[in-house]
Every structure is written in structure tokens, then in C-alpha cells.
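Re: the request from the purification team.
They wanted to know what the chain is likely to look like in 3D before they choose a buffer screen. I agreed to run a prediction and write the result into the notebook, where they can find it.
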Amino acid sequence: MADSLRREALQFKITDLSVRITAVERVFALARQDAQTQLDSADSALNAALKDSTRTKEERKTLKTAQADAKKTQKKAAANHKEATGALRRVQKLESMPLANAEKEAGKLDAQILALEQRAGLAIIPEETPIAAIIGAPAVSAPDTLPLVVADTTLNATPHADSASTAPTGNKQRSKMQPVGPQYKAYDPKADVMLNPPAAPCVLIRDVRDEFSGETYRELQRGELFRFNNEYVKKIMPPGQSHIVCEAALAEKGNTASLWLTFSIRDPNARKTFGGFTKNSQAVLKFMDGSTVNIFNLRADEGVADASGNVIQFKAQYTIDKETLKKLERTELDKIRIAWATGYEDYDVQNVNLLRRQASCL
């Protein structure tokens, strides 16, 4: 029993170390690539200057200094990446080691990975943001002296006897107090689009009928289900871009429904990190009411790179039975757990009503 608990704790530790060192390896791989690009550029600039007779001695000296600095940077980046790659290999070997040896090795790797994270800038604790900066409220400082308030004695003063003679005669009508400040329309919950959003149109990208079997195939236009930024990766993401974008679309062939999930991962090493999808791999749908449903993938996919090679796209098709389809139509989706070839990850769903609307369309 004790060994079983130790092994379970070790497995959690291995997963944590694997995620952390993978993120570090990505950072150093990108840094090494950038350093090599800078060195190649410095070499080209220096070679061009040496062949150009119009360039001065000072210019060539400056270019040589830049080349030397680029070499140092590239050498350091290569060393960092080599150390991170070595640590990653050691983490991958932990599961096959004896329990006591693996625990000891995991402790050493934890310290090494922490040092690598600090070197890569991934272990920096962000400063707390003042609450005033979050809500946009300016700070209010107490005044040195309180303003002098002068009472208006004319409001409660007794009218003078002579004033009766000067009071106007005829119909005496009191003037009504006019409201001060802007006027607001009364809140109507029925008009609140957050409470009662307009129904989205059902857009079918495919609606065909098989001439032989007579079955129809309908597939809805996919929509964005969620975005995800790994804590270790989002610091190096370009502004406005996400690490993972998942789009979803429901489809139906005859009486069988399926869920298509399309993952666009901004990482040229995504095939190595995630491994793609294997046939019969599992996904777990967690709904807002706390219930979960297991679904299974029908196809294997190793990923396809876009034209730039920086974004890898993976597709999975999960079978959906009638009960699950009804559940999707009634209840919002909260989270989803995806089993990749190299492990599983949990994602928070932002567009919680997407599959609910699509299920209603089917």
C-alpha cells in the first residue's frame, strides 16, 4: 500500500516535471534558433563588408565585434538548449527506474528544472496589481482641511410680515422640484442580450444524401470553443495570439452524430510535444451541472503544418450517442479533457453555449 501511494505521488511529480521541462525546452529552442539567425546575419554582414572596398576600417571593426557577440550568444543559447534537452530525456526515463532511484532522481531534476526556469524567465513571480488599477478607480486622498459648509438660512426662515404684501395674487401654484442629473431608462431583463441572447443561425457546410444507402450527412460550420495559453509558454507568444485554439462542429450521418474538434497549436514542435491523436483515444466532457460524459475518437491524426510551419493543426472525430446529444442540447459545457498521444490536458471552455446551439440545429 505504501509503495502504491509513493508510486502515485511519483507519477504526479513526473507529470509536473515533464510539463515544466517541455516548456523550458521550447523557450530555449526558440532562443537558439533566434541566436543562430542573428549569427548568420552578422556573418553575412561582415563578409559583405570585407569584400566591399568602400567600407571603412571602423565599420569593419564594428561588424567584427557584432559577429563576436553573436557567436557568444549563440554558444550560450546552444548550451542552454542542450542542458534542457538532457533534462527532458532524464525525466522521460523516470518511469522505468526503480521507485527509490526515481524519487531521488526526481528531486535532483526538480532543482535543475527550477534553475532552468529562472534562466529562461519562466519562474518570475508577477507583482501584484493595485486594485485601483484593476477596476480603473482613481485613488482618493483625504483633504488636509474639510471644506466649510455654510447653511442656507433662507430655507427655514420665517417670512417677514412685509413679504405678505408683495406676494403675488391669483392662483398660487407651487413649482415642482426638477430632477437633477442624467435620466436612465428602467432596466428590462427581457431586453438584456446577456440574459436572452439572440439565437444564432444554423449554418450547414455540408448537407448531402448518399444515393446508395439513402443516408444523409449534415455538418455544421465549426465555431471557436476555447483558447488556451500555457503558463510557461504565453510569455513568449506574440501579442494577440494564443498557444492553442480549438474549434468544434457537430455532424450527423443517418442516426449517428459525431463531434469534430480542430486544434490549431502555435508551436512548430507540437507533433513532438503532443504526439497527435490515436484511434479510440478518449475525451471527457464536463458540464455546468457537474456531470461528465466520455467520448471516443474515431480517427488517428499526426497533425498538418500550415504554410509557415509555425502552426500545427490536429483533428479528432468523437462519436456522440443520442443521450449525449440531448445532454449537449440541454446543458452548457464547462470543461473538456483531451487525451493526446503523449498525455492528457484539461481545458476551460469559454464558448459554453456553442455545442448547445449546434445540438439544437441537429
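For the purification team: The chain is about 40% helix and 20% strand.
Please add any questions underneath this entry.
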